[in-house]
Amino acid sequence: MKFTKMHGAGNDYIYLDARDIEEDWANLSRTMSDRHFGIGQMD
Question: Residue ranges of the domains in the chain?
Answer without folding.
Answer: 1-43
